[in-house]
Design brief:
- Helices cover 18% and strands 34% of the residues.
- The chain is α+β, with helices and mostly antiparallel strands.
- It folds into two domains: 279 residues, 2-Layer Sandwich (Gyrase A, domain 2); 75 residues, Beta Barrel (Elongation Factor Tu (Ef-tu), domain 3).
- Helix 2 packs across helix 7.
- The longest helix has 10 residues.
- It is globular, with a radius of gyration of 20 Å.
Amino acid sequence: MNAEPNLRTPLYSEHGALQARIAPFGGWDMPIQYTGIIEEHVHTRTAVSLFDTCHMGEFRVRGAAAAQALDRLITCPIASLAPGRCRYGFLLNEAGGVLDDLITYRISSDEFMIVVNAGTLPGDRAWIAAHLPAGVTFDDESAETGKLDLQGPLAGEVLQPLTAGDLRALKYFGFMQTAVCGVPALVSRTGYTGEYGFEIYLPVEQTLMLWRALLDDPRVKPAGLGARDTLRLEIGLPLYGHELCATRTPAGAGMSFAIDLKKEFIGKPAVAADAQTGPREQLVGLQLTSRQSARAEQSIMCGDKNIGVITSGSFAPSVGTAVALGYAAKEHTQVGTALQIDTGRARLDARVVPLPFYTNGTARTGPR
């Protein structure tokens, strides 16, 4: 039996015209790079890049009891979330393992939008819908929703002339409903790359128009998922399927800011236990002494002892060396600890460093 073909975003032909390298990601054919990962990475840090993120999913949850229902499903505080604000959190299974990491937007007192990862979308949809009480409605609006991410210090200068609302008033992890190029849109500011920028949600049939309008500005260049990955790695953000998975609680990933242990939520007992005692393995940042990168699944070594596993690794253009994230036995996670990474052919010297690796991003502060 033939496997189901990968999905394609409304911009697939545009990526081909720009000679992007396309590869499978989360069940989609997505652009990995255009001119090169390092070039796109640096342009995002110093100017502004445009990312096609239409593969991500958007759910709508409505009802008088929606806030209370989502509070039980998602680890971060939902009931206290103000309209016009959004929060990062986790969807967990009963054992505390991560089903997905997501962002919840409060549209009004009884309406929410949840943005989820592409590869986990079907499971997320089934899990959330199955755990909502009567009177709370659930709609998967992914197929009708386009999403573009404009990221970099110049993002505001580029987007403001096209936007009816005042983007300067938009605080970190805030959003507004406005018009972009005359089209109704939701614009948020969460900055997955670590840089100042915006996520733009709009009707899917208008995505191509906005993509072309933004690229008409000579300061804007397209960037692929390769640069998106190196950018998020430099600021120490986890990626589902790498640092986050259904067999680990988020406590070991150092994500306590997205977990509210004062409320009840599915998976809380396991998360609380890990938070109290510390999981046996903890996520650490490793800075290598060379440009040679570690890769996922390679072993972290202390002498001849295997003490952990790499989850993500790459050369970090903004740092100047290779960096990696990985889970290591907690007795070896102190900053400054010297370790090695076994590539199968060689041992790469590394040391534990604080996260994030790159600290000069503009996501929180806005343009320099």
